[in-house]
Amino acid sequence: MACKRAAKLRWIRQIQVRTVAIDTRGETAGKPSGEKKTRTSPALFYRQVVNELRKVIWPTRKDLITYTTVVLIFVLIMVAIVYGLDAALGWAVLRVFGGS
Asked: Please, which residues have CB within 8 angstroms of residue 52's CB and are 6 or more apart in sequence?
């Protein structure tokens, strides 16, 4: 038992050391502190949006119909499960507490 505890403590220390090493490198996910945030024009934003939308691989009609069918069937199954649980639990509550 003591061996497992010692191994766990060593593992926790290693994780802490790695975390501190990552944090002290100064590489943060945000923008560099020296740069000032500049605002872009609406026209530039629109052009960038259009360029990004051109890169999107849109689903084919067959894929779209397949995805829609799968989602609708899944939703119907979930509705049936929730309805069944609601009806069963409602019946059980009425049986236990003697409803009218």
From this structure: none
Q: Distances in Å between the alpha carbon of 12 and those of 3, 5, 16, 23, 74?
A: 14, 11, 6, 17, 42
N-term to C-term CA, the chain: 58
Query: d(Cα 71, Cα 78) in Å, to the nearest integer?
Result: 11
Q: Which residues contact 23 (CB under 8 A, 6 or more apart)?
A: none
Cα gap 82→88, rounded to integer Å: 10
> What is the residue whose two structure tokens read 């890169």?
55
- Report pLDDT digits (tens) over 40-71: 899 999 999 999 999 999 999 999 999 999 99
Token pair 């802490």 is found at 16
